[in-house]
Amino acid sequence: MNNKTILLVEDNPDDEALTLRALQKNNIVNEVMVAHDGAEALDYLFCRGTYAGRDPCRAPAVILLDLKLPKVDGLEVLKRLRADERTRLLPVVILTSSKEEQDLVNGYRFGANSYIRKPVDFNQFMEAVRQLGLYWLVLNEPPPAQGAH
């Protein structure tokens, strides 16, 4: 699990703190990069703007993507990731409090690998994050590196 980065795209400071605490409590010590809106997430992933110097070969192991984001919403972020050869295969887990059926349908339509509704209860949230980390950072076999050729 060591050098796999997690990209958390979350604009709510409480949800960000809760997610980071749940990762830490579950001994998931991977580097977590936090983007606070969709535009920042896209800049990070496409190595532009503030992140122009970032190594494009160091893609995150998994993206935890909220849907209700300022500037560029989560579904638009997902569409842009799937439309670009460099990011098309990155694992994206939608992690949202949205209960809208259409968000679920569109999440999968636009290429999400998984869709998880944030549990309100902290213990349930802790367990969800533990399982997320175990699956995406340990068990899942990622596609071959895209930018390496």
How does this model look, in words?
The protein has 149 residues and is of the alpha/beta class. It has a domain at 38-137: Response regulator (Rossmann fold, 3-Layer(aba) Sandwich). 39% of the residues lie in helices and 14% in strands. The protein has five helices and five strands, in the order βαβαβαβαβα. Strand 3, helix 3 (74-83) and strand 4 (92-96) form a beta-alpha-beta unit. Helix 1 (13-25) crosses helix 5 (122-139) and helix 2 (38-45) runs parallel beside helix 3. The protein is globular and about 35 Å long. The mean pLDDT is 89.
The appropriate CATH architecture of the domain at 38-137 is 3-Layer(aba) Sandwich
Largest sheet: 5 strands, parallel
Radius of gyration: 14 Å
Number of helices: 5
CATH superfamily of the domain at 38-137: Response regulator
Number of strands: 5
* Range of strand content: 5-15%
Strand order of the largest sheet: 2-1-3-4-5
List the defining traits of the structure above:
149 residues, alpha/beta, Rossmann fold, 5 strands, 14% strand
Task: Furnish the topology, listing elements before pairings.
Elements: E1 6-9, H1 13-25, E2 32-35, H2 38-45, E3 62-65, H3 74-83, E4 92-96, H4 101-109, E5 114-117, H5 122-139
Parallel strand pairs: 1-2, 1-3, 3-4, 4-5
Helix pairs in contact: 1-5, 2-3
Provide a compact summary of the structure.
The chain has helices spanning 13-25, 38-45, 74-83, 101-109, 122-139; strands at 6-9, 32-35, 62-65, 92-96, 114-117.
